[in-house]
From TrEMBL, chains A, B, C, D:
InterPro entries: Acyl-CoA_thioesterase_PaaI (IPR052723), HotDog_dom_sf (IPR029069), PaaD (IPR011973), PAAI_dom (IPR003736), Thioestr_dom (IPR006683). Residues 38-110 form the Thioesterase domain. CDD domains: PaaI_thioesterase (cd03443). NCBIfam families: PaaD, unchar_dom_1. Gene3D superfamilies: Hotdog Thioesterase. The keyword GTP-binding does not apply. PANTHER family: ACYL-COENZYME A THIOESTERASE PAAI. This is Phenylacetic acid degradation protein PaaD.
Amino acid sequence: MHTLTDPYMQLLGLETRLVEPGRAVVAAQVRPEHLNIHGACHGGFLYSLADAAFALASNSHGTAAVALTTQMQYFKAVQAGEHLEAHALEEHLGRRTATYRIEVRSNGRVVALFTGTVFRFAEG
Amino acid sequence: MHTLTDPYMQLLGLETRLVEPGRAVVAAQVRPEHLNIHGACHGGFLYSLADAAFALASNSHGTAAVALTTQMQYFKAVQAGEHLEAHALEEHLGRRTATYRIEVRSNGRVVALFTGTVFRFAEG
Amino acid sequence: MHTLTDPYMQLLGLETRLVEPGRAVVAAQVRPEHLNIHGACHGGFLYSLADAAFALASNSHGTAAVALTTQMQYFKAVQAGEHLEAHALEEHLGRRTATYRIEVRSNGRVVALFTGTVFRFAEG
Amino acid sequence: MHTLTDPYMQLLGLETRLVEPGRAVVAAQVRPEHLNIHGACHGGFLYSLADAAFALASNSHGTAAVALTTQMQYFKAVQAGEHLEAHALEEHLGRRTATYRIEVRSNGRVVALFTGTVFRFAEG
């Protein structure tokens, strides 16, 4: 069984839409409490949305996986009210590490790109 | 005058401790609502803490700065109750871009390392 | 006219196969002088191959572009004799910055993944 | 005993100055064959210099280490004739992974910053 949410996702209003082996989709609407000092969506919120999809996708094979390194590219400012989706895909699945690409989309357009690598713990 | 908080920082319980030209310190305690599916502090929370210090430091010169790319290295799992501090230092200040190093520390130990580059808008 | 090679590409034996607006392909064979202390292809060589494709693709629009930040993910060791191709695609084209994804492939398999962001100079 | 050079370092003219547990320094002079299409030092050469120091530092503990992910920040264009040094320091040493910071310096100034994470193989 996959875990589909956690306390941090609930705090931010992040909702799991899909989890399959190596894939996940997480969605959220940008609310006033997600804004930064410039009045736009906070980069930490966009990252957290992508990171949630990353965690679900990388833990979808039944082996516990923890993040080692991540990167985020911000393409476009996001405003309050926008509906966002983070789509995670597996770039590479190795025995002890794996890498994922997560697109953060608004209205079908990629507004930020996340790449993350996990360490996979050995099974039983 | 520097803006010392924003709605997203308030949602997460992040507190600004210091802002100086090119530097910032943001602090937080890890609470139950910051935990992930493994019961440890969520990577998105650690990133958001670092990102808040990054935003304050990179906007500390009076020129608006927005994140272009960031990287995060996770060294150690963080548990509920830990007191964290994110310390941002300027690695490089150019005319149109600048780069910052942010250490996330717990009990003086670096638990995660963030590197971020901003685009700096031209002044009036 | 696009410049299709430079002294560093010649030193490493890198050959341009394609340059189109926002795209480039560079190829090379791994030779004994490209190996590292483990006897496999040096990570710096794989990066240089990807970086050459990144430079060609990001300079393909007639605006001079210079690298700001890059990331590299290594998936699989590469051996002497392998034929490699680096395929660069544009992830995002903005006015002053742009981001590219470069896959390093051997026999159709992605052995390393490069992501890079450039600063674009204003035109005349 | 540490291996202090390899074929790729020799091709590029990279010279090891220091290897200690968790540390390394590699030096090079920028020559005409290291230049890019803009007539400045190629980003792949700067990366390769940093990567050589990264490899030496991460393999300095007697456990074989291979690169998983790396990042590079370019701060300043480098010209032919400049003398460069890459200084590698250990940010974090874990059982199965470790992270290094490598500064590329010219005349004492940091011209590029590299961060890299390795996977460490288990010992006999």
